[in-house]
Amino acid sequence: MVTTAEPTTTARPGRTGGWPAVAVVAFGTFLLVTAEQLPVGLLTRVGTDLSVSAGTAGLMVTVTSIVAGLAAPVVPVLVGRLDRRWLLTGLMGLMTLANVASGLAPGFAVLMVSRALVGVAIGGFWAVAGGLAVRLVPAERVPRATAVIFGGVGAANVFGVPIGTVLGDFAGWRVAFATLSGLALVVLIALLVMLPPLAATEPVRPRLLAGQFRNRGVRLGILATFLIVTGHFAAYTFISPVLQDLSGVRADLVGPLLFGFGVAGVAGNFVAGAAVARRLRTTVLVITAALAVAVLIFPVLGETPAGGVTLLIVWGLTYGGVSVSLQTWMIKAAPRAVEAASALWVSVFNLAIGLGALTGGAIVDALSLTGVLWLAGALFVLAGATVWAVRAADLR
């Protein structure tokens, strides 16, 4: 049953954003995801410079993801009726200052505080930006615009993180963070210029957030998101040892193959963006089924380099469609409460990233790399069953 709450946002006549605004928001998501994941490529340098272990340095990613998950539903509640244009620019300003602090951090404690602030910016920005397409372009172009916005996520994995890592290797990790702050400032200015006024007619209140769980479509969509993202990161976190130990891929080829995974993901994002406009539920079913097949047959058909590489690309192509499909799901399930539903979705998405990695690590230590693939496959199957239970009336 679709919620009957009033729309959380209403576009004003006159100045409109259109595709230039969509492009700026997409670049904002690109920058935020790059900032979230960049420390993965800088762990050794940061750890050595600040005299902490690699495991401790890894908290730069974990803490940011957890804070982002907590901030996603909280930020819209705290800002009330604040124009979303000002909210997005303010969060990008926080992103700018946080990365300046990261680049100048005298010790690991200060760095962790700055990374927590990055998490606030990520959670708040994504919660609003994910459902922004409905306010920037005509209704028939919303799926494509949503795909463009989430294209920034895939592009961050393909271009942002590798380029930032190379910059950190050559100029130092502090320069990499400082560069992020400079780019964030550029995006802040672009948001002010390109975005139309986006006043909230009804603030997102805790009651409205809680009410989304009475919406069957939102409830099942969030459950499917939790299962898919947890399963993906449980297995993908260990994709490097899977490729080397299970498929026999040389260590020096893992980097280029992960680049290929990211490119396939960008392509999958736009393929899914086109498909959801016609068959949303079917598209998500195909995605969950393909993910389940890819990881479940990996221990059998992925025992050779050719098999492992083929399944990796299928995996990347398929997972690339997850964000745009499930965000569109939230828009369809809660058309009158897009921001509230999106905030819950973003929260679950980010928390599932951390849970997936932690669970995968426990399985790898207790069982084997094959065990983590079986776990991911089982979660994908459960996600498929969840999607199968959805009725047409749940997605309008």
From TrEMBL:
<keyword id="KW-0812">Transmembrane</keyword>
<feature type="transmembrane region" description="Helical">
    <location>
        <begin position="343"/>
        <end position="363"/>
    </location>
</feature>
<dbReference type="InterPro" id="IPR050189">
    <property type="entry name" value="MFS_Efflux_Transporters"/>
</dbReference>
<dbReference type="InterPro" id="IPR020846">
    <property type="entry name" value="MFS_dom"/>
</dbReference>
<feature type="transmembrane region" description="Helical">
    <location>
        <begin position="146"/>
        <end position="167"/>
    </location>
</feature>
<keyword id="KW-0472">Membrane</keyword>
<feature type="transmembrane region" description="Helical">
    <location>
        <begin position="369"/>
        <end position="390"/>
    </location>
</feature>
<feature type="transmembrane region" description="Helical">
    <location>
        <begin position="308"/>
        <end position="331"/>
    </location>
</feature>
<feature type="domain" description="Major facilitator superfamily (MFS) profile">
    <location>
        <begin position="21"/>
        <end position="395"/>
    </location>
</feature>
<feature type="transmembrane region" description="Helical">
    <location>
        <begin position="17"/>
        <end position="35"/>
    </location>
</feature>
<feature type="transmembrane region" description="Helical">
    <location>
        <begin position="284"/>
        <end position="302"/>
    </location>
</feature>
<dbReference type="InterPro" id="IPR011701">
    <property type="entry name" value="MFS"/>
</dbReference>
<protein>
    <submittedName>
        <fullName>MFS family arabinose efflux permease</fullName>
    </submittedName>
</protein>
<keyword id="KW-1003">Cell membrane</keyword>
<feature type="transmembrane region" description="Helical">
    <location>
        <begin position="55"/>
        <end position="79"/>
    </location>
</feature>
<keyword id="KW-1133">Transmembrane helix</keyword>
<feature type="transmembrane region" description="Helical">
    <location>
        <begin position="220"/>
        <end position="239"/>
    </location>
</feature>
<feature type="transmembrane region" description="Helical">
    <location>
        <begin position="86"/>
        <end position="110"/>
    </location>
</feature>
<feature type="transmembrane region" description="Helical">
    <location>
        <begin position="259"/>
        <end position="277"/>
    </location>
</feature>
<dbReference type="Pfam" id="PF07690">
    <property type="entry name" value="MFS_1"/>
</dbReference>
<feature type="transmembrane region" description="Helical">
    <location>
        <begin position="173"/>
        <end position="199"/>
    </location>
</feature>
<feature type="transmembrane region" description="Helical">
    <location>
        <begin position="116"/>
        <end position="134"/>
    </location>
</feature>
<dbReference type="InterPro" id="IPR036259">
    <property type="entry name" value="MFS_trans_sf"/>
</dbReference>
